[in-house]
Amino acid sequence: MDYFVIRGGKPLQGRVAISGAKNAALPILAASLLTSETLRVSNVPHLNDVTTMIELLGALGVEAAVDESGVLCISAEHLNSRRAPYELVKTMRASILVMGPLLARFGRAEVSFPGGCAIGSRPVDLHLKGFEAMGAQIDVRDGYIVATTEDGLRGCDFTFETVTVGGTENLLMAAALADGETILRNVAREPEITDLVKFLRSMGAVISGDDSDTLTIQGVSTLHSCQYTVMPDRIEAGTYLVAAAATRGCITVDGADAEHLGLVLDKLREAGVDVQVEGTCIKADMRGKRPRAVNITTAPYPGFPTDMQAQFTALNLFADGVARITETIFENRLIHAQEMSRMGANIAIDGHSVIIQGQEEVRGAPVMASDLRASASLVIAGLAAQGETRVDRIYHIDRGYERIEEKLQSVGADIVRKMR
Ligand code: UD1
């Protein structure tokens, strides 16, 4: 199993190119099931989760190939299965996203109960309630969710009890091919949803309600081929900007979209970072300054993203003052706090919050990654700490950060990947 060895305490300086967004690419790839025509998708990041999604689609019969210009060409013309197998689904929760498209186009989907990051119980009940509202029948057989419809999905008026990103995406894709109008209320508004809406539109879907909490979809009978470029990864960009702040360095991320990072940039500024935006470049300059403590409460977009919570916890370890970080989206997403206390951090868990008394200096230590964003936070902590940090179980980080150690090395980090 791979691990990182980090020798910390060096301010990071330089430029980092931002990859395509994992959380936009995954639903877009799943949406390829909606048409028999070939789709051409650019800026798909090279990540283990993307590979898993392509393998999963391959298990259904989808053909995918990268052309000479790096564009992913994907065709769901000849499907031979409607079953998303346990072996693949258990490694990635986003596998559930094939359910809506399969059900809408073929009237049947079988998906093993999803796995993914261990960040609390993450049910898919709202996805299933939505499919039922569209006329699907849902059964559970041998650990598989089996969704069927005899005469196709029909439009409905559905309100999500809780804001769910994956649930919104799944129902949106299903509704694109359903009979009649679907109104989805209390939908997630994350930029990745907007990216999926744009992608579906370029396939011929009829969707309105952008930037609101209600999406209206007029179902069409078929969707067609398109070319699309996946949006930049706002969480990857945010992670490098926090790494600059924690190490008292200066990093410019290239190819990012500052509009997607509103509260994240506000919180960096509150921490004392000089943040400058110029086109698609965002510069975070913290040279010679110690960060100030910042409180964070996660919330659905446009609130503060849960996927940036752990990284800001790491930043606060080194800050002047006391910070409270409150996680409201997931039940069990504070495991990194325990690992950080191994580094001598003054950090305590209080229900759904962590309270951090920042210290001028934190010492490196062996730590273990528990999920994707927790691993990024431990890497940031290691980069800013004095001495050596070893981060184990980095397979989590490889799910969502493209070539992270190369990108960090290019801005001066002393980080190496080793194999046990
Ligand atoms: C997506 C992102 C993940 C991010 C999360 C929240 C992808 C591939 N992953 O995950 O990085 O952290 O959004 O921004 O895009 N819930 C239910 N019932 C459901 C569905 C969700 O109770 O049927 C609950 C979940 O347990 C959680 C909350 O709703 O407490 C939000 O989850 P959701 O938005 O669905 O997260 P994901 O789509 O899994």
TrEMBL record:
Gene3D superfamilies: Enolpyruvate transferase domain (3.65.10.10). The modification 2-(S-cysteinyl)pyruvic acid O-phosphothioketal is found at C117. Phosphoenolpyruvate binds at K22, N23. It catalyses: phosphoenolpyruvate + UDP-N-acetyl-alpha-D-glucosamine = UDP-N-acetyl-3-O-(1-carboxyvinyl)-alpha-D-glucosamine + phosphate. Keywords: Cell cycle, Cell division, Cell shape, Cell wall biogenesis/degradation, Cytoplasm, Peptidoglycan synthesis, Pyruvate, Transferase. InterPro entries: Enolpyruvate_Tfrase_dom (IPR001986), Enolpyruvate_Tfrase_sf (IPR036968), MurA_subfamily (IPR050068), RNA3'P_cycl/enolpyr_Trfase_a/b (IPR013792), UDP_GlcNAc_COvinyl_MurA (IPR005750). It is an enzyme of class 2 (transferase). Its EC number is 2.5.1.7. Residues 7-408 form the Enolpyruvate transferase domain. UDP-N-acetyl-alpha-D-glucosamine binds at R93, R122, P123, V124, D125, L126, D307, I329. GO terms for molecular function: UDP-N-acetylglucosamine 1-carboxyvinyltransferase activity. Its main location: cytoplasm. The active site is at C117. Pathway: Cell wall biogenesis; peptidoglycan biosynthesis. It is found in: Cytoplasm. Pfam families: EPSP_synthase (PF00275). Belongs to the EPSP synthase family. MurA subfamily. PANTHER family: UDP-N-ACETYLGLUCOSAMINE 1-CARBOXYVINYLTRANSFERASE. Cell wall formation. Adds enolpyruvyl to UDP-N-acetylglucosamine. This is UDP-N-acetylglucosamine 1-carboxyvinyltransferase. It comes from Candidatus Paraluminiphilus aquimaris.
